[in-house]
Amino acid sequence: MAVLMGLLWPLERLNNAVLAVGRVIAVAALAVMVCLILGQVFFRYVLNDAPNWTEEGARFGMLWMTGLMAPLAFRQGGFVAIDMLERALPKIGATLLSLALLCISFWVLIIAWDKGLNNHVDSLTGRGCSSSLRWPFGIEVGKCGPKFANQYQYAALWVGINLLILVNVELILRNLITLMGGADRLTDLRGEDMAGAD
């Protein structure tokens, strides 16, 4: 169990730091997204002429918000779950079931990692240029010049998958430690501000 705890502590600290930064960026992305959508509604219905880039900008914010918040929700148990069977099982059975589901999730995440990189970020679409989003002040960056490269949007999926893999490995280690009787040595991951469906 000492080896597992030695693996868990650095990973837990890394996830704490990375997910805290991701949360701040995700909240900023949400604020930008809301402002862009409200601005688009205002310009469309009041001035009868909405800028064409606001929709794509809002989508950009939504993708990054989702990619950065999904790992935090996964870690804190914030996803919707049907846990009747888990609650009906004894503690060891519930932990084994949770461990099996986390291993299946890990396998799915590894497949998604490949798809996120090869089918989105490093694909023909990902290498393309945005139709309407441009860098401010006419700045030219890379092969797309003043337009955003699509990779900046599609990278949200791949970054989110990487963070989900880190969280999944941490949760697997925590379940293994629980099976070995070390549950009392684990810190509680549920945030105080995390809403639940209980």
Overview of this protein structure:
It contains five helices and two strands. The chain has 198 residues and is mostly helical. The protein has one domain (2-185). The protein has a two-stranded antiparallel ribbon with strand order 1-2. The longest helix has 44 residues, at 2-45. It is elongated and about 65 Å long.
Summarize the structure.
The chain is mostly helical and 198 residues long.
Keywords for this structure?
single chain; 198 residues; mainly alpha; two-stranded antiparallel ribbon; 5 helices
Query: Structural class, please?
Result: mainly alpha
Report Rg: 21 Å
* Alpha-carbon distance between the two ends: 32 Å
Number of domains: 1
> Order of strands across the biggest sheet?
1-2
Largest sheet: 2 strands, antiparallel
Strand percentage, roughly? under 5%
Number of helices: 5
Q: Number of DSSP strands?
A: 2
Broad shape? elongated
In N-to-C order, the SSE pattern is HHHHEEH
Task: Give the topology, please.
Blueprint: H1 2-45, H2 54-75, H3 84-88, H4 91-121, E1 129-134, E2 147-149, H5 151-179
Antiparallel strand pairs: 1-2
Helix pairs in contact: 1-2, 1-5, 2-5, 4-5
